Amino acid sequence: MWYMQARSQVEACQAENRGKYNFRSNGPVLCSNWNDRKAVYFVSSMHRAQPLPGQTSTVMRQDGTGSSLPLSCPPLLPDYIAFMRGVDRGDQLVSYYSIGRKSKKWWRKIFFYLIDVCILNALVMYSRSAFSRGMDMYHFKMELAYRLVDGFSC
Q1: Domain edges within the chain
Q2: Is 0.70 topped by the overall pTM?
Q3: Which of 31, 88, 95, 133 has the most CB atoms lying inside 10 A of its own CB?
Q4: Contact call for residues 120 and 93 (beta carbons, < 8 A)
Q5: 112 exposed, middle or buried (CB, 10 Å; 0-12, 13-18, 19+)?
């Protein structure tokens, strides 16, 4: 039962320290952690450790009652939220209909992941083309599968 007590103490400490952040930097690399509901960790080579004078960074978060309140955050969090369209969005789309399978071989996992990323890139290129019909990932993968086996099925 000691672990339940330790967990409740950690959760109480996180709730108490919500909105506080720490940082360490070494040359151009900044490592920061921020306490939201859970600890969030960042590494950046683009941001400063402290915001410029007169510039505070806040985000809107909901408390337990559902009302919004401003919460202080590291200066890099608003940039992360604004520009997270790259890797995070790609990983999210790949995870929906992944072709990856369980395997004990590490290279198979990488192979399936690379196939998923190639399909995602093809979807992005297709959606930007003049032939686009606004397909989602599921319908794009189904159409791709039909086109790949079209001449080989009975």
Answers
A1: 2-82, 87-148
A2: no
A3: 31
A4: yes
A5: middle
d(CA 39, CA 119): 33
The single-letter code of the amino acid at 20 is K
Contact 47, 76 (CB under 8 A): yes
Given this model, what pLDDT does residue 49 score?
66
HSE, CB side, 13 Å, CA atoms: give it for residue 108.
7
Q: How many CB atoms are closer than 10 A to CB 114?
A: 10
Angle between helices 137-148 and 106-127 (to 10 degrees): 100
- Tokens linked to 39: 């600890």
Structure tokens at 68: 């919004």
Q: What is the mean pLDDT of each run of 10 residues along the chain (154 residues)?
A: 45 63 82 82 78 68 78 79 76 84 87 91 88 84 89 70
Orientation of helix 106-127 relative to helix 87-96, angle to 10°: 100
Q: What per-residue string of b and e applies to 56-87 under the rule 16 or more CB within 10 Å gives b?
A: eeeeeeeeeeeeeeebebbbbbeeeeeeeeee
